[in-house]
Amino acid sequence: MPSFDIVSELNDVDVKHAVDNANRELSTRFDFRGVQASFEFKDEMVIMKAEGDFQLKQMADMLRNCCVKRGVDTSAMDIQEMDITGKNYKQHIAFKQGIEQPVAKKIVKVIKDNKLKVQASIQGDQLRVTGKKRDDLQTAIALLKGEDFGQPLQFNNFRD
Known about the structure:
alpha+beta, four-stranded antiparallel beta sheet
């Protein structure tokens, strides 16, 4: 029976390159001259450091632009709360990977509500969709690409 998997993965190399590009852009910007600000990629998370909260907001926009240029989907970015210690501000940005249970249930519900002749099953942090015909699976892919689930989805492991 034909099937495919729905996953949500990011390429860490592209994220690292986006962080490097953002650091380069940071060093050339006039409004960041003489300011201790930096991006750091560590443990699948970006750490931004600056001297003010306004600068952190600008840095988040710079990182978002660099991610778009590298082809990283920015809907996977999860910007967390700021940490303030004295004059230094720090903020973590995590990237969502894997499909969480509530999102997986929402995907299954969308497939069932559209009465497609396929079955979706949750397998850990991914979904497996099976059907009798290849055309039904392609219709399911087209349907899911049109929906917004708050994170990027990839469709792989298509088998006949």
